[in-house]
Design brief:
Largest sheet: none
Radius of gyration: 28 Å
GO molecular function: G-quadruplex RNA binding
Distance between the termini: 71 Å
Strand content: under 5%
Protein name: MCRS1 protein
Helix content: 55-70%
Shape: elongated
Structural class: mainly alpha
Number of strands: 0
Order of helices and strands: HHHHHHHHH
Number of helices: 9
GO cellular component, one term: Ino80 complex
InterPro entries: MCRS1, MCRS_N
GO biological process, one term: positive regulation of transcription by RNA polymerase II
Amino acid sequence: PQPAPSLPPPQVSRSVSAPVAPSPVPTPGLAKRMKKSKQPLQVTKDLGRWKPADDLLLINAVLQTNDLTSVHLGVKFSCRFTLREIQERWYALLYDPIISKLACQAMRQLHPEAIAAIQSKVLFSKAEEQLLSKVGSTSQPTLDTFQELLHKHPDIFYPSRTAKALQLHWQLMKQYYLLGDQT
């Protein structure tokens, strides 16, 4: 057998480094105060941009679509949020007890008319759109057609959906060739 090739010994540089001064160790009381002061800043920073209406819209939209990217692309919030901000807010609502509690308290104080307006903006789920796509593009569906669809499938449609809302969404789907009998 041949001997394994030997590698040259590693080169070690002998540069002189300046001694590093030890950092001052804060007193235990100061460290606690610093840690406590950071968390409320984060909570209040989030509360400034995220309105209770935004939180309610986010929750309902995610429950409908199960997709944060769709929510980012399809929901109009009170201000522009990046996908990352939406993801961070969703996780904060789920897992941060302080933010979750404050957001729930604020959403409970929304006026019933504001809640109804928010619920009317909720995205359509894939299942809802599948049912709507079965209404033919050449048919002339009336409000009764969509009311019947609501009655036949109450488990599929979002509770606040109306026949008029279904008709308007169906017309959009027809306009963009998303119905089952369109190519």
